[in-house]
Design goal:
Layout (H helix, E strand, L loop, with lengths): L2 H23 L7 E6 L4 H14 L2 E6 L2 H11 L7 E4 L2 H9 L3 E2 L4 H6 L11 E13 L24 E2 L6 H13 L2 H14 L8 H9 L5 E5 H8 L4 H8 L2 E3 L10 E9 L5 H11 L2 H10 L3 E2 L8 H6 L9 H6 L1 H10 L4
Parallel strand pairs: 1-2, 1-3, 6-7
Antiparallel strand pairs: 3-9, 4-9, 5-7, 5-8, 5-9, 5-10
Bound molecules: fe (iii) ion (FE).
Fe (iii) ion (FE) binds next to loops.
């Protein structure tokens, strides 16, 4: 796509977004609604929203888009924004939304009493509602798990032509790289990214699931993916996807060092939320044991509510050491991460 087309396309998207927000803001005042801007695109979420409506009578108006587009939209709409709840599938973007004054703090006794403090913003601007580890997928009949160790090692010659990973436009990769940048010096991090580019089995393409499929097809050996995509493949309607997943194993990197990088999905209340009370109710519902079970059992994400038992599959993957580098520190590194990824020519 050329730039002119992209620009025209973005204007078109923007007009569509503004029109939908006009329609949303015209809904009858007596309607009990909550307007959700979400960067998540999973079936489990729709199930949870339906359950919420059934329980409370509050209708969920869901607008799904790329998180950066949603943040742009919140900025453009300003005080007229119909957005009540803002959801991201990435910690870095949520912290940026707070820094851009797109959110407001909220109080919830349920959340402060039940959700571990490290999964909440220390000023109550957002709360995590799922966790996902970014791990290595491999085929044990091709790759000896003893050759796998750390994210850092993936940039060495031993992995030449073996790495499968999606584009650096993807927030999961940006946040993973920001965690490396938050741990090491900038020049080390840049060399790491260049090493990964050097070791790629093919130019970045597709999503996390496509990396696992390419690995199964013998295109590369090690796919960098979020844990839940393995769960989604294992439970796919497509028998070929199930077969691929059954021959794939997950490796949790950096267990002897700082731990595996874990990202979060987080929820917040938009700065100008017209239905703040409904927003509060919905966020508490995302964290309820009932919803946490759905995220864990249907989307194979790690629950944040400590009373929710891990489903069998997550238990099979095992417990693991988590990188505890603060979300704030990682978020602060994202801007530089994007520049360095570009410099490393990670497409
Ligand atoms: Fe995802």
């Amino acid at each position: 796509m050329n730039h002119l087309f992209l620009r025209k396309f973005s204007v078109l998207i923007l007009l569509t977004l503004l029109y939908t927000s006009f329609v949303l803001s015209c809904s009858q005042p007596q309607d009990a609604v909550v307007n959700v801007y979400s960067g998540r695109h999973y079936q489990a979420d729709e199930q949870v929203f339906q359950n919420f409506t059934q329980k409370t009578g509050i209708k969920v108006n869901l607008i799904k888009a790329n998180t950066d587009q949603l943040m742009q939209r919140l900025q453009l709409e300003g005080a007229n924004s119909p957005a009540d709840v803002f959801i991201t599938s990435d910690a870095g973007r949520m912290v940026q939304a707070k820094q851009k004054n797109l959110l407001q703090p909220f109080q919830s006794q349920f959340i402060s009493e039940n959700i571990p403090a490290y999964l909440q913003d220390n000023q109550n601007y957002w709360v995590a509602f799922t966790q996902r580890a970014r791990v290595l997928a491999y085929n044990p009949s091709v790759t000896d798990s003893n050759t796998l160790s750390t994210y850092e090692a993936l940039a060495t010659d031993a992995f030449n032509n073996k790495i499968l990973v999606r584009s650096s436009q993807n927030h999961y990769n940006q946040t993973l790289f920001a965690s490396i940048l938050a741990t090491h010096q900038s020049d080390y991090a840049l060399k790491w990214a260049q090493g990964i580019v050097q070791n790629m089995a093919r130019p970045p393409q597709g999503n996390d699931r496509d990396q696992i499929k390419a690995m199964a097809a013998g295109i590369g050996e090690v796919a960098i993916v979020n844990t839940y995509y393995m769960g989604l493949l294992l439970h796919s309607d497509n028998p070929e996807e199930r077969r691929i997943a059954q021959q794939t194993k997950l490796f949790f990197p950096n267990q002897q060092t700082r731990g595996t990088h874990v990202n979060i999905s987080a929820a917040s209340i938009a700065a100008h939320a017209p239905n703040k009370e409904h927003a509060n109710l919905l966020i508490e519902y995302l964290l309820s044991v009932e919803s946490q079970r759905i995220f864990a059992e249907q989307n194979f994400e790690y629950p944040v509510h400590p009373k929710v038992e891990w489903p069998m599959l997550l238990q099979e993957w095992g417990t693991f050491k988590t990188d505890t580098t603060s979300v704030q520190k990682i978020a602060n590194a994202i801007e530089e991460a994007v520049i360095l990824l570009d410099k490393a020519e990670w497409q």
